[in-house]
Amino acid sequence: MSFGSVLATTAPVSVGPYHYVPTEWICALFVALYSISTVIHLGQALKYKLWWMIPTATFAGILEILGWSARLWSSRNPKLLTPYEMQIVGTIIAPTPLVAANFIILGRIITRVGPQYSRLTPRMYTILFCCFDVICLVIQAVGGASAAHSANTKTSASKGANIMLGGIVAQLFAILVYVALAVETLLHLRYNTPFRYVEQPGTVEKGQRTRSTYAVISGYGVLKSVLRSVYRTVELANGWDGPVISTERYFDWLDGGLVTLAIYTLNFFHPGIFVKQNDPSAHSSQQTIDRF
Asked: Which of 263, 279, 281, 286 is nearest to 41 (CA)?
């Protein structure tokens, strides 16, 4: 293989709806990575009896598998519209349930650290942010379906792109508000300045370091979601023929790469491990907490 042929895999090729041919081995690599993570997430959800991790992190992995499988299909048939439409919907909406998992995790952390240090109650975090996340998911799905239909009928896909862009921007706003509230909670915990009095506050001293560390790790995962949302916002704002969406390496690194890091972060630092280490009766208390 010549040096020129290696460069050819990354050079933009104006063919098909992508404006390039997706690199086969990269698509296959992401399919494998997401498949491994998804299987592990399912096993961890069953092991720790954290059922909400199935419609969140596990479901996100399934959507990523579908999206990248479609891109793998496109690597062999770049002019087909069906796999292109599939990857639009799959890769756009897949990170949304993954973000929802982080929203729920923050509520669990606050429950154990002490809800008096948070502006919102743990239940309000789950209800408020997850409901907003579902709305963003629906908006992105509608936009993706509209864009896919436009591609199929060879009409302007700008309407679908604008709808997806609105959903991503709204989700980015929710993530930033979530980060601000999480940082505020950690600061109030650090300086022991509660917002209110509660009858049974969380045990701050016991396991505080572990909880704070886990909160920072969760923040690291959320940061990758923020960066990915910024990339997608810029991508769609430039249109379907823009330089960002027409460059494969941007998508591979700033979408596939960042989401892969985010989903594996939850594998290696699973909330079930955190619950088990900090509460001997974690499973029974978890069932009580989940009764919303």
From this structure: 263
State the Cα–Cα distance between residues 243 and 241, nearest whole angstrom.
Answer: 7
What predicted TM-score, i.e. pTM, was given to this entire model? 0.83
Say how far apart CA 81 and CA 240 lie, in whole Å: 14
Residue numbers of the chain with a pLDDT score lower than 70: 1-14, 151-157, 198-217, 275-292
Q: How many whole angstroms separate alpha carbon 96 and alpha carbon 143?
A: 14
d(CA 94, CA 179): 20
Task: Give kind and range of the element (H or E) at residue 170.
Answer: helix 158-190
- C-alpha dihedral over 177, 180, 186, 191, to 10 degrees? -130
pLDDT at 209: 55
H-helix or E-strand spanning residue 3: helix 3-8
The span from the first CA to the last CA of the chain, in angstroms, equals: 60
Per the CB < 8 A criterion, the answer to whether 165 and 235 are in contact is no
For residue 125, the Cα-to-chain-centroid distance in whole angstroms is 17
Buried b (16+ CB within 10 A) or exposed e, 143-182: bbbbbbebbeeeeebeebbbbbbbbbbbbbebbeebbebb
Separation between Cα atoms, residue 8 and residue 143, nearest integer Å: 33
Residues whose CB is less than 8 angstroms from the CB of residue 77 and which lie 6 or more positions away in sequence, other chains included = 83
CA 38 to CA 139: how far, in whole Å? 24
CA angle at residue 211 from 207 to 217, to 5 degrees?
145
Q: Quick one: DSSP state of residue 254?
A: I
Q: For residue 17, count other CB atoms closer than 10 A to its CB.
A: 17
